[in-house]
Amino acid sequence: MRSTVLCLAALILETIALATPIRAQQGAPAPSAGLPTREGDYVIRNFHFRSGETLPELRMHYTTLGKPERDANGRTTNAVLILHGTTGTGHQFLAPQFAGVLFGPGQLLDLSRYYIILPDNIGHGKSSKPSDGMHVHFPQYGYADMVAAQHDLIMDGLGVNHVRLVMGTSMGCMHSWMWGEAYPDAMDALLPLACLPVQIAGRNRVWRKMLMDAIRADPAWKGGDYTTEPLDGLRTALDLMLIAGSAPVAMQKIYPTRDTADDFLDGYMAARLKAIQGGTVDANDLWYAFNASRDYDPSPDLEKIKAPVMFINSADDFINPPELGIAQREIQRVKHGKFVLIPASDQTHGHGTHTWAAFWQQYLKELLEQSRR
Which class is 3-203+291-370 in CATH? Predict the structure, then answer.
């Protein structure tokens, strides 16, 4: 595995293939190194959280590619907002399996035509987060706060007054639904990847709560004011994240014996413990990131969404299993909505299929054509 999997952004659910190695494939896109990125920070003054807390300065880090274009009325016409998942960062979308498929000349989100915006959300990457210094005293942010900060960033910080497309993976998928409801006239299209448009409940809530409880039950937690990372709690958290992000068919093929599976797990845990000990992973950041989903529930207002929606899940997703029937049921309430289920195979990546654009780029093309103005 590449060294990037040692960082928090690549440890968990929202990376390219959490439970399987990054493996060479025939026809795989060329590496996306050298993309013309621009990075910056937008500081939101006196940001008010839904909890009632206020942060005098909320830093929102972002990466952009391409240049914004405006029509004769000053309306932004080519902005694409792409939202990462829990513990991820905007940089995950620079990976070849995403950027190499979408951002190149003649591709669907060709940088000569589109202005790509990749935020680091609250609590993630280089944006304001507990480990910056406040630790457990950082405001208790939720998904509504994260979406509001994204809106402030692009509208006020970047001067984008309309979005051609809002898309996101996992947590970013959930944020996409919230964008469609909170700002129904702000975008032309929505592409939610790997989530469900209902409150997090059932097994999905149970494993998340197990993860959070494990961190706080570790004596080294010390109420969140720890001086050394609570390793036992983090070990359990990592185990749960591995299972949740796994791709069963691919893992059975790649690790067909007890010994190969054991060797994989040993290497997986050793690399991640090294990241923890190196200061890359912080228990407060992780706990806050998972706890943020507590206010998520777009189901009451799905009818408010005006933009065309292409909603995509994968059949081997442990977190959003198709047998629940929720996606198929709820999409019927979306005025211009379509649901696509990607079949499981030894080439898909479980929950992480969302970042492999080759599996769903045809549906993005359909959405862009459908929503063209």
Answer: alpha beta
pLDDT at 15 > cutoff 70: no
Q: Domains of the chain: which residue ranges?
A: 3-203+291-370
Query: Is 0.90 topped by the overall pTM?
Result: yes
Sign of CA dihedral 314, 315, 321, 323: positive
Place of tokens 């996409």: 176
Question: What is the full DSSP assignment across 270-321?
Answer: HHHHHHHHTT---HHHHHHHHHGGGG---GGGGGG--S-EEEEEETT-SSS-
pLDDT single digits (tens) 222-235: 999 999 999 999 99
User: Token pair for residue 258?
Assistant: 């007890």
158's CB contacts (< 8 A; 6+ apart) are 42, 62, 64, 68, 117
Distance CA 110, CA 114 (A): 6
* CB 166 within 8 Å of CB 181: no
